[in-house]
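Figure 3 (text version): structure tokens given as input.
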């Protein structure tokens, strides 16, 4: 990946901070929050490690296949969890993107972010389109909208919406791990980070 040193450190800081917040979310009382937070924490820290500028640290050749194996396992877990929530399909795509970038880096002559190849242009382009769309959608979800009043609104909401509503109620009592708007902002940050890493290939 051809990331300038200053941009690389910004990406490292963004992804590491996101991973740290996702670890905090793993203490949530909401089961769906806990399930999603573990995969998102792994993604955040994995992206942070991958974005470290090559001028500072070049990973050994065995690190990239290890990344691919770890995120391959995370992808299988996300595929299994997708039976309960379609949000895990996004985790599956993210894990697949990390496996893809790891394999590209493993095949690169220098085995480091400053020496990466371009990968398969069609696959890189498809991932760029997906994450660009995800970033736009995640940004739209951060825009506050008035919630419908009345008991029928909660009855017609899906399980994810009800979990978010419960998380909001807990967050108002001071539970930072249950703030859905911060969780959405973290997902947006990771989507932007993934876009930056794919563009640098």
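Below: residues designed for each position.
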């Amino acid at each position: 990946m051809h990331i300038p040193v200053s941009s690389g450190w910004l990406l490292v800081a963004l992804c590491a901070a996101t991973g740290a917040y996702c670890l905090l979310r793993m203490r949530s009382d909401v089961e769906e929050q806990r399930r999603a937070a573990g995969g998102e924490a792994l993604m955040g820290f994995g992206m942070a490690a991958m974005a470290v500028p090559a001028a500072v640290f070049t990973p050994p050749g065995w690190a990239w296949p290890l990344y691919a194996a770890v995120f391959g396992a995370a992808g299988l877990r996300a595929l299994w969890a997708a039976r309960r929530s379609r949000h895990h399909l996004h985790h599956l795509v993210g894990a697949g993107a990390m496996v893809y970038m790891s394999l590209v880096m493993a095949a690169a002559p220098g085995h480091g972010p400053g020496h990466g190849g371009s990968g398969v242009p069609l696959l890189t382009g498809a991932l760029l389109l997906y994450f660009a769309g995800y970033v736009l959608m995640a940004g739209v979800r951060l825009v506050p909208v008035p919630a419908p009043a009345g008991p029928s609104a909660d009855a017609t909401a899906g399980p994810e919406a009800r979990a978010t509503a419960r998380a909001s109620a807990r967050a108002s009592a001071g539970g930072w791990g249950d703030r859905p708007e911060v969780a959405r902002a973290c997902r947006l940050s990771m989507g932007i980070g993934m876009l930056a890493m794919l563009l640098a290939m």
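The radius of gyration is 18 Å.
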